[in-house]
């Protein structure tokens, strides 16, 4: 008999479905194939005329048609980030065979976040009010842009009547979403939760705002080489867009319906630096990783792979390496670490979920995706950072890190298929 509770007596939370919309491909296998092959999804911006911007490239999802996932009227009524969330959810549901029976609807939740929400919808309607007046504002303006309409729309589609809300914690958003979904399952308020994140902020305000902060790379002459975590020549992050959605449910429920049990979420940590709105101090990140390990009840030496936050910023990259060394000590030299942001860019509120899914794929396949563009590691960045090409790994546990503006941190610890 398989124990459906963990060593602390809590209900085990397993992943039974995953869906991806990324600049490297739409669909789990399409995206994974590109990423494990080191293919960059970064290129010139096509969604608006960026000729006058300091940064003129991003990680756009260029093979996405919302009409593949919803009727044209529904697509027009939802911002691009909601469209992404619905598509990723549909993929995860299909893989999982997940259905919500009316008898259990109140015990199925939806927790999906975004960092900024419908920025494009805001910009569009600002033009409308300026040029045509307030009476011409689209009546779906507000429902199209607010973050919680991503889980709201999914809840309606699935008939899920349990908790329905959105964390908003910048770049840590969807890692928090996964962690909080697991907490709902552990404490018995939900038997299943659809969780993840979505983002679509490659817009004039999005790019212009991050340019004003001097946060983005300006390597306009070679966009695919612009996202280069830990490399000496890194000069800022690259904006990405997309979504990642996971079906998380109790092990008991998954077994009862014969679901494909893909992985287990065994640990979750969340902390604050309380230090600076954009510059990390590394201490909060270290505490966060330690918290995830303690939550899972495993030793640091059990973790063999880390999907790092690794954004390609001069300060943040080094601080994360220092934090990893602090947490894992001598064992850090035996670990494999990589940043998939080198290929798909920084997907902000979607990053945590997308990277957790990629961590699961790394554990499943025994392959660490590469950190492309890492030719000359910076001083202190001396771990195995999977430079340029993927590597074979033998890992049962993998850690996915997400750290956001405001000093907010989240780490999700995952375990390869565990029955």
How many individual β-strands?
15
Taken in chain order, the helices and strands follow as EEHEEHHEHHHEHEHEHEHEHEHHEEEE
- The overall pLDDT, averaged over residues, is 96
Shape: globular
In the CATH scheme, the class of the largest domain would be Alpha Beta
Q: Assign the CATH superfamily of the largest domain.
A: Thiolase/Chalcone synthase
- Pick out the low-confidence regions: none
How many distinct helices? 13
Helix content: 25-40%
The CATH architecture of the largest domain can be named as: 3-Layer(aba) Sandwich
Whole-number count of domains: 2
Terminal CA distance reads 10 Å
Describe this structure in words.
With about 425 residues, this protein is of the alpha/beta class. The chain has two domains: about 15-255, Peroxisomal Thiolase, Chain A, domain 1 (3-Layer(aba) Sandwich), CATH 3.40.47; about 270-415, Peroxisomal Thiolase, Chain A, domain 1 (3-Layer(aba) Sandwich), CATH 3.40.47. Helices cover about 35% and strands about 20% of the residues. Strands 1, 2, 5, 6, 7, 8, 9, 10, 11, 14 and 15 form an eleven-stranded mixed β-sheet that branches. Strands 3-4 form a two-stranded antiparallel sheet. A two-stranded antiparallel sheet has the order 12-13. A hairpin with a 3-residue loop joins strand 14 and strand 15. Helix 7 crosses helix 13 (about 350-365) and helix 10 packs across helix 11. The longest helix is centred in the first third of the chain and has 17 residues, at about 80-95. About 60% of the residues are buried.
